[in-house]
């Protein structure tokens, strides 16, 4: 270490140049680093979604889900496969182990799925593998003026889509609510019968009517010319004049019209609208993409007068806000740390020398982050905010030791070098142990590693930079700044020395007291409810209107518009959006839902009372009988399941697992803080199944005929005003009653017959959703839980399920937020144990003994006392981030003990153990208190700030770190010396006995 310190003095000019370079590169890196909300991380899941309008859940399960599952059986790396089949949609989710290359996994899934033959009228499978870079950057709406034709709308939609796709850095542009006008042909059965025209004649009415073909070449007037044939139907009137039989036109026997249909309902502030959801590409700057979106909106609004675009929400603004707010907390933390140093040192020059480590370390950290390809996000900035208090720790120890030596010795360069060398081992070891705490994060897998690793690297870069600054820049500046400084002597506290002496003489009393507090704090923590990371935002509200699956879609839409009108009259709304139905673009992102659900997103005005609006929505429930109307604080990043506990009932017998699921629901419902319990088997739908007598008719032929008679049938396409329109033959039959079904006529090998003569309709009640796990049916019971009571409710559910005795072959599996929380907690606890092992190994290497590191490690035992005390005093519910705070404290608290014991070891060369402990504690008390208080003060801004969604740097983490550090610092100064002497009890006793004997001999003389 001495060579590094003396090297800095021999190369002063080089050090000055390095300081300037680091500062410039840090500023440059800050402006260059891409800004995003969260670091890029792959979700180890691939989702396959299929839309099948008009198909019920049973048909989707058998015709779509089952073939897809069979095709995906051989996919490598998958851990399990979950699927959901509902009315009009099917979705298969494949989960993969953490080692799987997700891009290769997605490609393999695409190959398998594309080989599956799916039924007619269902969409192609949409395959998506989620990544945090897909988090939307902007939500934009597009509305049209009155009188704009469908053809104009389609052209404008394409122009808007192309404009947004051309933005530099854009990843995906999702367009929902696109207009899909079609030509609708509705046959009149009475007119068909009167004219003697069979219905089948309408199926080929467009066949061969339109063409564009080259038929060859010929020589005309001595010149070679090409010969083409074209035929076009230019408008609806031309379609009506198409002949369907001799002397009969299509318009004579059917109604032909353009139906201005849309694929899904999207409305904003009471007007039909298209919604564009823009996400950034990988490694793109979210802020730059957001700025590009704003420019594109301005350009389109200027150039296209028939349409209007509006930016509803921009997460890039939130990125800027989170970056700026976190930087503000970093600067406040640095200011508080500076004030603490000034109060302790009572010397402006020494304070300035110490504080220089903050900007230098931050600049170096930003440069290293840039070189590592890590973005500027709430996790990396959170790491800086947490590290800012530790950035001055090493410099404080160095400057304090120099300061202390200058109180008694004459100023010289050699003194500065020797004073720095004296503490160099201690600060190097303490920094390396703190860094070592974050090494086990590389052992974590999946998204947990993706989120924690950028945080850990930020902390590591910051701490190592501060160490280099403390060993080179601080002594160099001290030699110049403190040369003629008036330094007042600071003596060790006599009261503290007497207190420690008493504790050493009665060491079992403080040790037993600390152990009692430790066990009490652990017991208290076990009884405290653990919550989920808070993802709600009072500025956003979500409202859901959900009807039974057998409710007609037209009725759902009518009531959805009625509720929209009611919501728009409420005070405090900035904007309101309404959505209903599935769209191809949404399915591409794995978003498929029941067609009987209407969702509303509300943006609140600043200062508006969200609770008042939630209560007003709930008061409307009586006006929507048969519907489930819910409202609550929402967030666009929440998947809706963040505080749900799932109980999956699996088995081969659907009746047995359904009965077991009912028993599970009965056990869960009475549990306190369970807000709602439901299962996918609760919603039933009436289904009529035609059981065909196979000896009388062919079931396949009848199914084909009925599909054609009861559903729209595509018969071609038409180009009108440059717009391509699908032509659909509407259902010829519209049965209203059960008797209408029985009177249907179908063609058989023996001619036309009534359905009732060859088959019978069987009425059953079937579930509206079917869940599969690894190809087998299962029932999912989902319990919505009060977020702050997640751990307690999860534990109580497991306890209650012990009383459920499922039949043979049926199993219960508890999952959801509670299980995810337990898994994450287990990963962190395992990481904590590995960190402790690495820290202990480093200290054994440093001190070359097993006992001294044990005394240092004992300081970790005091962490839970302060952490739990902090949570109790503040009333904050601990979550995942609180446990992460405890992991951080392992590296932070041992630094104080290392500084103390390092001094003790030096003292033992010329003192007894008891004297060495008393002198070291008195001497090191000042730097230990300074570093601890500086770290605590630097963390205070985080306590009073609002943490960003998804950030691990939360109020809970800050409180745990502050509480744990305060209590651990106090106990380190008192208990660690007691434990150290206890470990060397015999040697210390012999020394004290020898010293007492020598004292008696001197007295006798």
From TrEMBL:
<feature type="transmembrane region" description="Helical">
    <location>
        <begin position="326"/>
        <end position="345"/>
    </location>
</feature>
<feature type="transmembrane region" description="Helical">
    <location>
        <begin position="352"/>
        <end position="369"/>
    </location>
</feature>
<feature type="transmembrane region" description="Helical">
    <location>
        <begin position="12"/>
        <end position="30"/>
    </location>
</feature>
<feature type="transmembrane region" description="Helical">
    <location>
        <begin position="854"/>
        <end position="876"/>
    </location>
</feature>
<feature type="transmembrane region" description="Helical">
    <location>
        <begin position="925"/>
        <end position="944"/>
    </location>
</feature>
<dbReference type="InterPro" id="IPR001036">
    <property type="entry name" value="Acrflvin-R"/>
</dbReference>
<protein>
    <submittedName>
        <fullName>Efflux RND transporter permease subunit</fullName>
    </submittedName>
</protein>
<dbReference type="Pfam" id="PF00873">
    <property type="entry name" value="ACR_tran"/>
</dbReference>
<feature type="transmembrane region" description="Helical">
    <location>
        <begin position="882"/>
        <end position="904"/>
    </location>
</feature>
<feature type="transmembrane region" description="Helical">
    <location>
        <begin position="461"/>
        <end position="482"/>
    </location>
</feature>
<feature type="transmembrane region" description="Helical">
    <location>
        <begin position="956"/>
        <end position="983"/>
    </location>
</feature>
<feature type="transmembrane region" description="Helical">
    <location>
        <begin position="381"/>
        <end position="403"/>
    </location>
</feature>
<keyword id="KW-1133">Transmembrane helix</keyword>
<keyword id="KW-0472">Membrane</keyword>
<keyword id="KW-0812">Transmembrane</keyword>
<feature type="transmembrane region" description="Helical">
    <location>
        <begin position="508"/>
        <end position="528"/>
    </location>
</feature>
<dbReference type="InterPro" id="IPR027463">
    <property type="entry name" value="AcrB_DN_DC_subdom"/>
</dbReference>
<feature type="transmembrane region" description="Helical">
    <location>
        <begin position="423"/>
        <end position="441"/>
    </location>
</feature>
<feature type="transmembrane region" description="Helical">
    <location>
        <begin position="828"/>
        <end position="847"/>
    </location>
</feature>
């Amino acid at each position: 270490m001495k060579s590094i310190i003396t090297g800095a003095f021999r190369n002063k000019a080089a050090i000055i140049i390095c300081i300037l370079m680091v500062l410039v590169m840090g500023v440059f890196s800050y402006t260059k680093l891409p800004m995003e909300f969260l670091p890029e991380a792959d979700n180890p899941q691939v989702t396959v979604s299929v839309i099948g309008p008009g198909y019920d859940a049973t048909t989707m399960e058998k015709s779509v889900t089952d073939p897809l599952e069979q095709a995906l059986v051989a996919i490598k790396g998958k851990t399990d496969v979950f699927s959901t089949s509902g009315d009009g949609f099917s979705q298969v989710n494949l989960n993969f182990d953490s080692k799987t290359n997700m891009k290769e996994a997605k490609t393999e899934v695409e190959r398998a799925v594309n080989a599956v033959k799916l039924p007619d009228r269902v969409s192609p499978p949409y395959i998506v593998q989620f990544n945090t870079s897909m988090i939307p950057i902007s939500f934009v709406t597009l509305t049209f003026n009155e009188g704009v034709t469908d053809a104009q709308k389609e052209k404008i939609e394409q122009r808007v889509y192309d404009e947004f796709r051309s933005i530099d850095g854009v990843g995906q542009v999702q367009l929902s609510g696109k207009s899909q006008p079609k030509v609708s042909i509705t046959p009149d059965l009475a007119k068909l019968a009167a004219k003697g025209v069979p219905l089948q004649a309408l199926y080929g009415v467009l066949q061969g009517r339109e063409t564009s073909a080259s038929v060859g070449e010929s020589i005309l007037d001595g010149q070679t010319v090409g010969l083409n044939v074209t035929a076009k139907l230019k408008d609806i009137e031309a379609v009506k004049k198409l002949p369907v039989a001799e002397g009969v036109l299509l318009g004579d026997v059917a109604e032909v019209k353009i139906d201005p249909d849309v694929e899904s309902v999207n409305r904003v502030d009471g007007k039909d609208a298209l919604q564009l959801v823009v996400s950034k590409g990988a490694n793109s700057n979210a802020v730059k993409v957001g700025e590009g979106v704003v420019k594109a909106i301005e350009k389109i609004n200027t150039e296209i007068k028939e349409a209007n675009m509006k930016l509803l929400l921009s997460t890039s603004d939130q990125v800027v806000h989170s970056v700026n707010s976190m930087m503000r907390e970093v600067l406040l933390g640095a200011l508080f740390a500076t004030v603490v140093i000034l109060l302790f040192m009572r010397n402006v020059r020494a304070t300035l020398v110490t504080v220089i480590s903050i900007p230098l370390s931050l600049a170096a950290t930003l440069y290293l982050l840039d070189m590592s390809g890590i973005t500027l996000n709430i996790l990396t900035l959170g790491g800086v905010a947490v590290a800012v208090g530790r950035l001055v720790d090493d410099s404080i120890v160095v400057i304090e030791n120099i300061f202390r030596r200058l109180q008694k010795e004459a100023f010289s360069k050699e003194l500065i070098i020797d004073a720095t060398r004296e503490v160099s081992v201690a600060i190097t070891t303490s920094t390396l142990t703190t860094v070592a705490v974050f090494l086990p994060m590389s052992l974590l897998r999946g998204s947990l590693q993706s989120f924690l690793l950028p945080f850990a690297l930020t902390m590591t870069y910051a701490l190592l930079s501060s160490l280099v600054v403390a060993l080179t820049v601080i002594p160099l500046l001290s030699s110049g700044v403190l040369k003629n400084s008036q330094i007042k002597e600071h003596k060790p506290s006599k009261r503290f020395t007497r207190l420690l002496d008493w504790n050493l003489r009665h060491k079992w009393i403080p040790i037993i007291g600390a152990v009692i507090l430790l066990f009490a704090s652990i017991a208290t923590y076990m009884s405290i409810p653990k919550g989920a990371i808070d993802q709600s935002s009072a500025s956003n509200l979500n409202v859901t209107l959900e009807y039974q699956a057998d409710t007609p879609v037209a009725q759902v839409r009518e009531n959805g518009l009625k509720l929209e009108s009611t919501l728009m009259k409420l005070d405090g709304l900035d904007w309101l959006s309404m959505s209903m139905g599935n769209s191809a673009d949404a399915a591409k992102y794995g978003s498929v839902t029941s067609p009987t659900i209407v969702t509303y997103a509300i943006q609140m005005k600043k200062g508006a009372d969200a609770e008042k609006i939630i209560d007003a929505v709930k008061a409307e429930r009586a006006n929507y009988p048969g519907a489930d109307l819910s409202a609550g604080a929402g967030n666009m990043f929440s998947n809706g399941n963040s505080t749900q506990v799932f109980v999956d009932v699996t088995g081969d017998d659907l009746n047995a697992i359904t009965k077991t699921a009912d028993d599970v629901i009965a056990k869960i419902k009475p549990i306190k803080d369970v807000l709602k319990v439901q299962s996918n088997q609760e919603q039933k739908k009436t289904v009529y199944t035609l059981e065909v007598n196979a000896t009388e008719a062919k079931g396949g032929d009848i199914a084909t005929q009925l599909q054609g008679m009861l559903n729209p049938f595509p018969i071609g396409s038409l180009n009108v005003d440059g717009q391509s329109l699908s032509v659909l033959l509407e259902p010829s039959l519209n049965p209203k009653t059960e008797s209408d079904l029985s009177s249907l006529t179908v063609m058989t090998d023996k001619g036309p017959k009534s359905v009732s003569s060859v088959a019978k309709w069987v009425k059953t009640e079937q579930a509206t959703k079917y869940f599969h796990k690894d190809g087998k049916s299962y029932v999912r019971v989902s319990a919505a839980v009060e977020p702050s009571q997640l751990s307690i409710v999860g534990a109580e559910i497991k306890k209650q399920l012990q009383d459920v005795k499922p039949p043979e072959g049926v199993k219960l599996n508890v999952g959801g937020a509670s299980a995810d929380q337990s898994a994450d907690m287990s990963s962190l606890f395992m990481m904590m144990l590995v960190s402790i092992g690495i820290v202990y190994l480093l200290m054994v290497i440093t001190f070359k003994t097993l006992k001294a590191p044990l005394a240092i490690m004992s300081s970790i035992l005091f962490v839970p006392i302060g952490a739990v005390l902090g949570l109790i005093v503040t009333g904050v519910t601990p979550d995942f981030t609180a446990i992460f705070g405890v992991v951080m404290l392992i590296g932070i608290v041992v630094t104080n003990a290392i500084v103390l014991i390092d001094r003790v070891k030096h003292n033992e060369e010329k003192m007894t153990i008891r004297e060495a402990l008393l002198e070291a504690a008195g001497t090191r008390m000042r730097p230990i208190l300074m570093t601890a208080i500086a770290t605590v003060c630097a963390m205070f801004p985080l306590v009073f700030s609002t943490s960003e969604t998804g950030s691990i740097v939360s109020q809970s983490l800050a409180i745990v770190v502050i509480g744990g550090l305060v209590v651990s610092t106090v106990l380190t100064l008192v208990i660690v010396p007691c434990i150290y002497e206890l470990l060397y009890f015999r040697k210390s006793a012999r020394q004290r006995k020898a010293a007492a004997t020598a004292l008696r001999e001197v007295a006798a003389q």
